[in-house]
Write a structure and sequence with these properties.
The chain has helices spanning 4-40, 45-59, 62-70, 79-101. The chain is mostly helical. The protein has one domain.
Length: 104
């Protein structure tokens, strides 16, 4: 009986995993749908860009992306340089996404 409990638990976890995996996918689809709604809206271009920046600012962890982009070089930067890099990386990432989603 003791062996059956881990097997039953494992089966339950495997069956539950796809249901949990759908939540992040649904969240991402929701964000992209919001972006499409903004782009298709009647606002001025700059208002759309601002709205997209706010939307993607909540969605993307640009700090984690920036640290990962630097990889092993991250630790060679001073805390001031790291902070400056992350700010620039965040701004560049958002500008790139806005341009791709809502070109002029």
């Amino acid at each position: 009986m003791r062996r059956k409990v881990p097997i039953i638990l494992l089966r339950w976890l495997l069956l539950a995993a796809p249901a949990k995996a759908a939540a992040p996918l649904d969240y991402t689809r929701g964000i992209l749908e919001q972006a499409r709604t903004i782009v298709a809206g009647n606002q001025a271009h700059n208002e759309k860009l601002t709205a997209l920046s706010v939307l993607f600012g909540k969605f993307l962890d640009t700090d984690a992306m920036g640290r990962e982009a630097l990889g092993q070089h991250w630790s060679s930067f001073s805390p001031t340089q790291q902070k400056e890099f992350l700010a620039l990386f965040s701004r560049a990432s958002r500008a790139n996404i806005r341009t791709e989603v809502a070109p002029v």
